[in-house]
């Protein structure tokens, strides 16, 4: 990220009180001056380091919110459930419950309105986060008063940090406990080659998810059109084949998706990816939807360009075209579930963790 001043130059603003000021000013005036200069330093440093010019810079800046500030094993109860000893992480923006060292439930304290409540006036061994606008609560029970006090102070710090910085939102139940990002954040970060995962609301899609043990049954690819600064979604539709639509029209025309998740492609040459993806889409645009038993049994690749595709096969082909996946394995062996899990890419590229996009139309209200 670019700064107009170096860190040392900014730091020089901090605690600079001239000697003559000590002679002519009262102790209170000096203290106020120091506080003002400390404030100037903090503001200058914050402004200069948060100037994000590219989608990747914006994404990286957001990812700093996942920095862990507190962690431990705590008894947790959600809503009317029972207490369960859990591994808990508190980041700068989220309360996270882990399962087998993997983020399982994520509560976004940056955007969700809640009250932090001390359940016993004489003790901090039991505290409650009351998400009052959506009727959800989380209880945290600690081993002793000291542990409870430390966690309470950290949670209070986060509560104060975001109290007036962001408008709190009222969300649908499907977003509670998920690592969601707002639609505007997604549109700021999205770049050519990033992945979208879809959960479709129909019987066949549910059956597919059950068979593959996945949350998702469909996958798409993102293209950012620089000339319009617009996001386009490339996917394969049963009745159309390989198609692409601008994001805003995609949402209007495809209302069957219950949940949409986003994964960012990282550590790649963006100019190369932009060129290769667009070149590939030009070659395959309009190709029909095709899924049959022969494809599913195929183990070895039959080349980069086919006469027909299903959704995840198309994404695998596109990634192969960009030298991000091995050429030998058949693209038909890649399913939506493949792109939702940890996927080893070539040339040090990787996909970010999966984040649910909180669509504007699913925000019930803002506080």
From TrEMBL:
State the source organism's domain of life: Eukaryota
User: Which Pfam family, an example, fits this chain?
Assistant: Peptidase_C92
Q: Which PANTHER family does the record associate with it?
A: PX DOMAIN-CONTAINING PROTEIN
> Under what name is this protein listed?
Uncharacterized protein
